[in-house]
């Protein structure tokens, strides 16, 4: 990352060096002004040195402004480059990301980690200036007094070594706090995302107590970090202050002995006071590097993840349009151009099968085939274009409703809304398709959101459309309209629906009954009701005694 922005980093370091070096030579100029001008009562010398001091002040002011501009630029470039990298990686990983990294972890990267990375780039300019100015001051002192020069050259590194023992524990505590912050953010995301469900079951207090406990644990970890941080901050003031006292005491003795002039004594005091800046900058740099290393570890972990679906080394030829889709593991065969329904007593089993049909399940295998070609042998982009899986977890992003519904830019949104029986939702909106959708589409009810999600999937109009429980949140009348219209809307196109609703199953061309991971029966809804008791029990939700009575009556 630093290599990508080396120009702005170099610019910041250059002006940081100029800015701090200008401050470093000011005590020498003041000392000469005192000795050559004030003590010698030479007005011309005093004016000359005052002019030099004024010029250095101007250089310092200009360099300080430019240093700050470069520092802010470096912070912004680094922080938003992290956002770009993580966003691109999230897009690249697709469905792999939520299975390997929690939502809270990604949120923590976007709220805290990028700031720590940016702060290192920010402080780099001042740190470069601190190193160079330290060398400049040491050289000046060595020319004036070897003893004072050695005190600076030896004392400053010793002071830094005094801070070093704190850095290791600070890094460990910061890493622990960062881990807890990710967990806390994940808990908060879960609560916000499921708030409506929590209210429905009366679970708000349970999750509130859970959040409070995790929050207090995170707070405790933050306090432990703050304890070390406070000691480090105190040492940033105490150690340089102690150093100033030592240098001034030695300089004062030399002045009393007549070894140095009053102007040189003032200069020594100025050097000592100035050296507090490089020392504090160095400890600040070490502190921010530690926090950035913890943040970088988390970021690199996300960036190192590989998608479960990758482009094969040798891409197989594209299967012909209108080919059958087969899953050899379960025995499911989806005939091209038909509406096929999958029924299972366990909704999770049918949902998992639906994900596998679109290579959205984990792990990805080569048992799903299109015209005999494993999906894993095809380009993932082609698979995504030809097979679209719309599950119950699909959501809307913030933005214009029309953009959320028409993802391809040329879909027949009006017809899709009519098929999904969602025209009334659009009519109730003042701005129609220009309505701004709230985050996750929370401004819509569960049934409205489900119908809009179905309309979005229909507007894409893929070759094969897989719908997971598309009518589970709507009333029977709306479901009947959707079931009646869906078959005509997708005529000539392959459609797969997972559902146990008799209304939806009756509209299907073929129904596949999934039991214990295998397709155990295939036929029309009417035929399976008549011939398969297990299927009838799942669809009609009859108990075993009721089923026995029903069989006896037949």
From TrEMBL:
Subcellular location, record wording: Cell membrane
Keyword Membrane in annotation: yes
Keywords from the UniProt entry: ATP-binding, Membrane, Nucleotide-binding, Transmembrane, Transmembrane helix
Its membrane topology: Multi-pass membrane protein
Domain of life of the source: Bacteria
Gene3D superfamilies (UniProt xref): ABC transporter type 1, transmembrane domain, P-loop containing nucleotide triphosphate hydrolases
Keyword Zinc: no
Name of the protein described by the UniProt record: ABC transporter ATP-binding protein
Organism whose genome encodes this protein: Nocardioides endophyticus
């Amino acid at each position: 990352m630093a290599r990508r922005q080396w120009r702005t980093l170099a610019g910041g370091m250059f002006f940081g060096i100029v800015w701090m070096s200008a401050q470093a030579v000011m005590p020498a100029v003041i000392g000469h002004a005192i000795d050559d001008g004030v003590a010698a009562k030479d007005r011309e010398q005093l004016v000359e040195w005052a002019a030099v001091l004024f010029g250095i002040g101007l250089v310092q002011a200009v360099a300080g402004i430019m240093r700050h501009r470069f520092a802010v630029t470096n912070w912004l470039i680094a922080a938003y480059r992290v956002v770009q990298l993580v966003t691109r990686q999230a897009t690249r990983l697709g469905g792999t990301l939520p299975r390997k990294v929690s939502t809270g972890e990604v949120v923590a990267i976007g709220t805290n980690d990028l700031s720590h990375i940016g702060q290192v780039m920010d402080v780099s300019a001042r740190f470069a200036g601190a190193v160079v100015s330290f060398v400049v001051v040491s050289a000046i002192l060595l020319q004036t007094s070897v003893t004072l020069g050695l005190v600076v050259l030896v004392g400053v590194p010793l002071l830094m070594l005094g801070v070093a023992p704190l850095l290791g524990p600070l890094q460990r505590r910061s890493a622990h706090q960062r881990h807890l912050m990710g967990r806390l953010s994940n808990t908060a995301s879960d609560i916000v995302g499921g708030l409506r469900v929590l209210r429905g079951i009366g679970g708000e207090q349970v999750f509130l107590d859970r959040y409070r406990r995790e929050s207090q644990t995170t707070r405790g970890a933050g306090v432990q970090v703050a304890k070390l941080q406070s000691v480090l901050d105190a040492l940033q003031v105490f150690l340089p202050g102690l150093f100033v006292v030592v240098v001034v005491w030695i300089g004062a003795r030399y002045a009393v002995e007549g070894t140095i002039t009053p102007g040189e004594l003032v200069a020594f005091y100025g050097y000592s006071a100035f050296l507090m800046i490089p020392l504090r900058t160095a400890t600040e740099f070490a502190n921010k590097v530690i926090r950035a290393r913890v943040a970088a570890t988390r970021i690199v972990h996300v960036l190192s993840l590989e998608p479960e679906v990758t482009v094969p080394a040798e891409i197989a030829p594209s299967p012909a349009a209108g080919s059958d889709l087969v899953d050899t593991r379960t025995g499911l065969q989806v005939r091209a151009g038909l509406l096929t329904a999958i029924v299972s007593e366990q909704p999770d089993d049918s949902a998992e099968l639906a994900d596998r049909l679109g290579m959205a399940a984990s792990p990805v295998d080569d048992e799903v085939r299109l015209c005999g070609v494993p999906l894993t042998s095809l380009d993932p982009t082609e698979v995504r274009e030809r097979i679209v899986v719309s599950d119950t977890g699909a959501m809307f992003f913030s933005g214009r409703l029309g953009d959320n519904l028409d993802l391809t830019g040329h879909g027949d949104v009006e017809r899709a809304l009519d098929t999904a029986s969602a025209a009334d939702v659009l009519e109730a909106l003042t701005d129609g398709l220009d309505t701004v959708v709230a985050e996750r589409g929370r401004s819509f009810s569960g049934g409205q959101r489900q119908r809009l999600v179905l309309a979005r999937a229909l507007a894409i109009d893929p070759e094969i459309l897989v719908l997971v429980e598309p009518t589970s949140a709507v009333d029977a009348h709306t479901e009947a309209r959707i079931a009646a219209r869906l078959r005509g809307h997708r005529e000539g196109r392959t459609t797969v629906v997972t559902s146990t609703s008799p209304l939806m199953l009756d509209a299907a061309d073929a129904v596949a009954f999934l039991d214990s991971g295998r397709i155990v029966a295939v036929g029309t809804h009417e035929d399976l009701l008549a011939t398969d008791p297990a299927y009838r029990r799942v669809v009609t939700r009859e108990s075993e005694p009721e089923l026995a009575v029903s069989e006896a009556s037949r």
